[in-house]
Design brief:
By secondary structure, this protein is mainly α. It is 98% helix and 0% strand.
Length: 103
Amino acid sequence: STLQSTESSAYSQAQQAMSQLNLARQQKTQFQQQLEEDCQRHQVQLTQLQQQNTQLQQDNTQLQQENTQLQQDNTQLQQENTQLQQDNTQLQQENTQLQQDNT
């Protein structure tokens, strides 16, 4: 009877150990699935961020080109303005000379 009780106890303990092992395996599988899902989600987020970064870099390049063009236009306008001022000064001098000649 003692032997049967010992065997029964050992069997029960073995069953509990198998149950715990199966539970641990299930938890491991669930954990692996969660990791895979997290990894996939993070990969999607990373791809989106990379695309956004590429777009921002392209936008920045475009803005730099536009800024360069505006600076060139501004320089051109300043040169034209300087030329007009010089022309105006020349005309004023000629006008003054003509007035003096007239008097």
